[in-house]
Amino acid sequence: MDLPAYVARLGLPAEDAASPPSAALLRRIVAAHLAAVPFENLSLHNGEALPVSLAADALFDKIVARNRGGFCFELNGLLSVALRALGYGVRLLPCWVAAATDVAGAGFRPLATHVTLLVRDAGGAAWFVDCGFGEPACEPLVYSLDGAEQTTAEGITSRLQVDEEISEPEHAALGFGRSRSGRYARSGRYARLEWQGTGDAGAGGEWSARLRWAQDADAADAATYEVDAGPQLSNPGFAAACRHVCLEPGIFRDKLVCTLLTAGRKRTVAGSRLKTTEPRCSGGGDEQVVAFEKLDGVEGARACLEQQSGSPEGRRRRSAWGRARWRSRESGSTSS
Fold first, then answer.
1. CATH code of the domain containing 154
2. Contacts of 197 (CB under 8 A, 6+ apart)
3. Which terminus of the chain has fewer CB atoms gathered within 10 Å of its CB, N or C?
């Protein structure tokens, strides 16, 4: 991993490539990553070979050398490689995405089509990190399953807590196999991420289920969770999930999406329009302004996507943008 090139891609100072793996550095990396590296599915729309490669060299070439973005397996996948190179302990967590957002009856999609990271810093603190969702929190969350509320800078209030247990046959069907300890596939214990205060809900609004993942059966808390014992990015389970996202029909296949996030603003190219939301979440006292801009065909979309990618002004247009097949469907977006 070329750490100087990676931190430069994020817009961070060069000295961060050699800094100790602290909580403060992790916060800087997550915020910079969300602001500089877009959540995007261009590879599904521009004629690239599918499914996308999850090899570390291929991810580095795409995201760093070619200044592109990607979706969860790519973004969090390369982030996991970088964090390990910086000295953090990292575990990949296969996740199910909520199909219904109400907590009381929340169901989850049948396949684990998302991945997040459990990260341990030099001080031993554990963090829940996600730079590959359509609209994640802009800071790492303390990995504690006691349901304590955590409010991050953009206004999202989150909580992590133990979820229900499910049967052995259902859990064993995940396809991710066992950890080195042999416990991963046998555990029936789950955890979930819930949000409050997103969008129009505002602070104190209803809780929304977002993600669910499996826990080690004997890990009572983050202090005993084995960060290096889970499935690696090369695991066939991730390859199968990535193949499903890339090739199966659905909104992610139908509509081109590109999103960049800061604590105060969300910009999304979805379909044939650009949506800008400031601030990202209501309920903080500031009036939320949502603006839409109709994009002018292929050229307008291409120019907007180039701007979203964080390319320096005047940099030669990349052929990947130029090959994009514009989809003008007006159906909903996965991240707007």
1. 3.30.2140.20
2. 151, 155, 156, 157, 203, 204, 205, 281, 283
3. N
Q: Which pLDDT belongs to residue 201?
A: 39
The first and second tokens of residue 267, run together, are 């910009």
Proportion of the chain above pLDDT 70, given as a percent: 71
Predicted TM-score of the model (pTM): 0.81
Residue 331 lies in a domain: no
Q: How confident is the model at residue 101 (pLDDT cuts 50, 70, 90)?
A: low
Query: Which of 33, 45, 72, 242 is labelled catalytic?
Result: 72
Hunting for tokens 């996965």 — which residue is that? 334
Token code pair at residue 34: 């969300």
Measured distance CA(18)–CA(23) in Å, rounded: 15
Final residue in a domain of this structure, among 247, 267, 290: 247
Residues contacting residue 88 through CB under 8 Å, at least 6 positions apart: 21, 26, 119, 120, 121, 122
Cis amide bond preceding 51, omega within 30 = yes
Task: Indicate if 130 belongs to the active site.
Answer: yes
Whether 93 and 108 map to the same domain: the answer is yes
Confidence (pLDDT) at 130: 96
List the alpha helices (DSSP H) in 109-235: 168-172
Q: Which of 247, 275, 299 is the last residue of a domain?
A: 247
Please state which of the ranges 8-17, 197-206, 267-276 shows the lowest mean pLDDT.
Answer: 197-206
Higher pLDDT, 26 or 66: 26
Is residue 72 part of the annotated active site? The answer reads yes
Q: Of residues 16, 95, 114, 304, which has the active-site annotation?
A: 114
CA distances from 5 to 63, 168, 198, 225, 257 (A): 11, 44, 34, 31, 26
Determine which one of 16, 45, 121, 130 is catalytic: 130
Same domain, 230 and 282: no
Residue 296 confidence (pLDDT) above 60: yes
